[in-house]
Amino acid sequence: MKSYFVYVLRCADDTLYCGYTDDVTKRLETHNSAKGAKYTKARRPLQLLTSVEFSDKKRALKCEWWFKHKLNRSQKLKLIKEKTIKETFEQELLAKEKG
Description:
By secondary structure, the protein is α+β, with helices and mostly antiparallel strands. 51% of the residues lie in helices and 21% in strands. It is globular, with a radius of gyration of 14 Å. The model has no long low-confidence stretch (mean pLDDT 96).
């Protein structure tokens, strides 16, 4: 079964970058090369802080969007430190579905 990942990078300027991929190692190499995302090109070198695995692509993309748009920096750092990104995302999604 194929896996999909949401990953978080720390940029050289101490900002965070969140993305989605099916190969974290390859994507980090791309980000640290001249072929990375526009945002990360000027902020190298990049350090992988965490990655979260999903078996469903749609769920991974939803988690990426949620992480980028619904959390502030301190919330993001707390979830990274506690290694609870996926669990917190799933709880939020479940609560939203229940209304």
